[in-house]
Fold each of these.
Amino acid sequence: MINLNTISDKELTKAVALYYDGTSAPIISATGKGDIAEEIIGIANEHGIPLCDNEELINLLITLELGESIPESLYISIAYIIALAYELQGKQPAGFSE
């Protein structure tokens, strides 16, 4: 007897990685569900990249294609996350002064 446990899409781990060069809109650099998501998260952890756990945002971003810029409607949300990531790493954007 084979027992097939099905996992709903909602139960899968999901991950989206963004690339931001400091000048253009962030782009989708990786997406994944399940094992691929765990690998993306593991790579981020290995490199000290801060993670943001926001299910609604991930569900929106995971629908985008690799290399695609984030939509304007998400600029402010992503800007807050990037600002927090900079702060957590003790960094400041180029040209930023207090």
Amino acid sequence: MVKTEALEEAILAMGEPFTVKDIVENVGGSPMTVKTVLERLAEQERVVVAGERPATRGRAAKLWKVA
């Protein structure tokens, strides 16, 4: 289990735009936990939506970046 503080720290250290899946695979945590942390960081204007990563199937993944 990854603590939300560790997720925040890892997210804010990301240099390139990233998806929820990128964080889950590289840092850990569940997709829902990562989304919750991202929403909180977005409210604080510490991360912003950077577009979408096209998908071959299904909905395109939202790209995030550090503000």
Amino acid sequence: MWETPKPGEMNVGCSERRKEIKRRRHRRKKLNDLKTRLKKATVSERTEIVRKVRELTPGADRIVSNWELTDADR
């Protein structure tokens, strides 16, 4: 159905909504991976996971408190 664009042709990107959905799915997958790693994490690894969560999402404070990581916070 869709043809691959030839060199020099204009390639139309996906809509902003699609990009946001993709970002949300990636963020959710990344958070699930971090939550899984958290079960076996040492104290220093917990601190690193908190740092990564803070970089990943704007709602990090709520996630950190829900995961009960206030002791590893900063």
Amino acid sequence: MTMADTAQATPQRALLRTIRGVVASDKAHKTIKVVVDYKTRHPKYGKFLKRSTVLHAHDEKNEAKEGDTVEIAECRPLSRHKHHRLLRVVEKAPEKALQVSAEEVMTGKAPEAR
């Protein structure tokens, strides 16, 4: 069996609907919560309304962190709520900045506890 034969014998995953969203929580092991924002039109008044959906997705390598923009795809049900899998991390979230008080900047030491 040659390399070309094995490539044809391996089944490809079906290209299902891909969704882009922001990771809201990565606290669970191998699971992320992704918030997907979209706009819908009001049936009577025609105004566009902001709506959001929270989807649970499978993250095999635990690579997505909170605040990251990710791309997920539909897959078979993995648990009661999980039916999406992580495809890739599109954009990493910036590191959380340390909160520094004005007193600490001016004096060079942390403020006293009150």
